[in-house]
Amino acid sequence: MRGTHPQAVNPWARLIGVLLRLYPGWFRREYGQQIHEAARAELQSTSSGHGAVSRWHVAGDVLVNLGRAWMSTVRSGGAERTPGRRGSRLSSGSGGLRGTGHDLRAAARGLLRRPGFALLAVLTMSVGIGLTAAMFSIVQGLALRGLPLEDAEQIVAIRRVDPDLGEGAIVASGVHLLADLTAEQTTLQGLVGWQGVVMNIADEHEPAASVPGLKVGDGFLSLLRVNPVLGRDFTRDDGAPGAAPVALISHGLWHARFGADSSIVGATIRLDGVPTQVVGVLEEGFAFPRNTDVWLPLQADAAILERGEGPPLFLVGRLREGGSEVEAQTELTLLVQRLGEAYPETDGGYRMLVKEWTADFLGSGGRQGLLTMLLAVSMVLVLACVNVANLLLVRAIAGSRELALRAALGASRARLVRQGLFDALIIAGLGAGGGVVIAHLGSLWFASAWQSLVGAMPFYVDVRVDTGVVLFVSVLAVASGLISALLPVLQVARSDSQDLLRHGARTGANPGVGRISRGLVVVQVAVACALLVGAGVFGSTVGDLRGLDLGLDLDRVFTAALTLPDSVYPEPEQRTNFYTALLARLGSQPDIDAVALTTDLPLSGRGSTRFGLAGNSYGAREAPRARLAAVSPEYFDALGLAAVRGRLLSATDTPDTVRVAVVTRSFADRHLDGNPVGARIVLAPPVDAVPETDQEIEVVGVVDELYGAVQTTSLPREAILVPLQQRPQAGLTGINLVARTSDEPLALTGIVQSELAALDPDLPLAAPTTARQAFVTNYYYLVVFGGLFGVFGLAALLLSAVGVYGVIAFATSRRTHEVGVRLALGATSRSVARLLMRQGLWRVTIGVAVGLVVGRLLASAFAGTFGVSASAPVVFVTVPVVLVLTSLLGSWLPARRAARVDPAATLSSE
Amino acid sequence: MAKSKDLKITVPMLYLLLTLVDGDRHGYAMGQEVARRSANRVRLGPASLYWSINRLREADLISEVEGPASGDGRGRPRRYYRATAAGLSALRDEMEVLESAVDFARDVALKGDRR
Questions:
Q1: Which of B25, B57, B66 to mutate to test the interface with A (most CBs of A within 10 A)?
Q2: Do B48 and A34 touch (CB under 8 A)?
Q3: Domain B2-114, architecture per CATH
Q4: Are A65 and B51 inside 8 Å of each other by CB?
Q5: CB 3.0 to 4.6 Å from A458: which of A45, A290, A588, A875, for a disulfide?
Q6: Are A372 and A487 members of one domain?
């Protein structure tokens, strides 16, 4: 038996009290007191008996009904619930107005009463939420959604990297590596190699076209758990050397080219000139790894090929159930190290990287870039919240006499606070609606910008506003609403109604709040400044790229690509002959001033080659690297390149003459001590041996830089150019055409196409464009992300202008009396306006200073991630000027209005 | 009384209504009376008690009236509840249903005895 413990009742009673406070207002006001009394009585009576259970019973009862009360409140839309007592109990503090529904309606009415204010607030919120949501939908589409395949998180990209070339420098794997890994690994369910190819597709119906193709190893589709919708998968026999050529085609190609005719299965098409039987059509939307339209079996047998020979392969694997990337990476790296010891020449010094497929596509830089963007855009959202908070605050102060009156009449403070909260939530809710629209437009823009700059997105990327984004927006809206409500609510909560009544709107209610509000100007300007600097750095880099004087006149240069299929042109002479014939035909065209072929376009380029200085011996992986392009003689004419020293390559440099090369200025400076002409170099020097003299190449001239106007990759900018004729093995994987015209470059497309068709009707022309566009496309991310950032920056500028306006308007409205006195004492309205504006200006200055520092840091971060130049002096001058000017405008408007008041009216109103 | 039709009258609500047949009571007294009359079989926690009262009020089955001042005469008047006409008629309807149920039960029980 326990005795009565009055003190034991207290904590329970307190608990009940806390729980009761959580009830919806209408219910709490109506019954809270009575429930509390009843609960106390229960607790008293039960504390003597089997108390513990009953106390729990009482507390549980209060808790259960808490849920009930809210459910019912929500269901009835927060409408007034309690009947029969309207207006009868002023002392309850509700002054006859109560209920969530009422507050919501009151808030909506209040907003409608000042539509300009409401519109401004809602627009501000829409911009903040919309931009953030747009960025989120981009991040989601690129990084979060993943492959649309079964258990997609198990699918990993397996890369061989060469640490010597820099972090993440990927080197293709080979058939032998694949065979050895497949035999020994245990962390993957499966491992398949693939080789990307560009295929020329031709048939009797349509003109020849170039389509992205993929040669895939055995078990490719089953690894990805994808089935053909028509026909069959490849069999092991299809991949055997000498097997009849077969292909699978994408759903998209089947529709676009073959009219979705199911008789395509079993039909024969020409792929790179080889009659190939279509054995199946794949699922709609499947285009692994990115945008493949045609899949072929990979015919490469490790048992037949020399180690190190064979096609360059990329690997895709599927992790074991519950396996991790790290586990697989550790195991594969261990295996590769062991292979490196066994075959140092071909396999030495590599590591393996295993990454979830979509993460691999983005790369760590891309992911970091996206996160930076998301961070930046959330600054815009913060700015929007600050603005709305400020607007609400101004309104709260302006209405503080009314508030005081109502507080004095018994409206509870909680209630006033709640109303402020509802104001903010309504604004945020409407802002969310506008935000979804903006996010939708933003995602459309992004998709089309990507499409026009880069081409088709990988098949699994889907940037759009979906439920996830809408959910994200909702959370943002609620959070933003609460944040925005914070200040005005604090203002109300802290204000003393006596004080309010006495001073009213003249001196404002709470000097602390005024301070906060003015402090916010600094924050706003700083954020806007940082974002504008970020945008400016991007913009100036993109501008530099577009208008860059590369020493090359790219605007009149047409470029395109073509691939001579190995199957039709297996011998180097055949390719050389084709090239010669094509150049002769094009060279005789009146519209073409100069035409050439090159393995690498200037300012782009995909890889680098090791080289050595003649007479030197290099250990494994010691020889330096440079870019290498094999070019036909008119290359220099076509690009307008002149020799800085020595001579250019010419048609007389044939396979029968001395092997020669032209190098870029940076190459000469770095590797040849500024004395280049006559120097001798060796490409791909043998390991630990002095190369034979017949391997040597003589440097005959120097030209200006071709690569690295903007250093965005780990690839070297030093380059070697050799005659295409002296390097017949070049151009196996495709070659680029460059042609100079005095006319519009794209007008050459038709001419080139018909000349090409005259030589080989199965050969399509790929990617016809201007050289400058081809160059800019290389930096598409700068354009896309720079554009995004520009939008963020503009939004920030606009929002900060609105913010400054709001704060100055607020500050001046509180000084109306003072202005009246000054004017009455003879001050001119101009001097008064100047006085008022000065107040805002120094805060803007602080904000700009802080923003420049933050912006500088941001720019350095971008310099690391995107390769923009962090020190664009123009940006660091322009941004502060623009911000100060906007702020001046923002403060001039309200200051002028205040300075024009009629002094007599102001003074007599007090 | 469209409203009362919407309300599903639960056993506790029925008991609460019954406590008001012989006069007005305040909420806590209604709860005590329910416990007493049901021999503690029906016990309403404090919040459940007022939740049910609220439901009854919303359905216009009971209404609030001002009661006499509490104990020492200084406190504010306690809030009493009174069954409305609609409440009483709903009560009659409920009783009829219950009576038929009891009849039914007896009927079945008798047959059961015979078996």
A1: B57
A2: no
A3: Orthogonal Bundle (1.10)
A4: yes
A5: A290
A6: yes
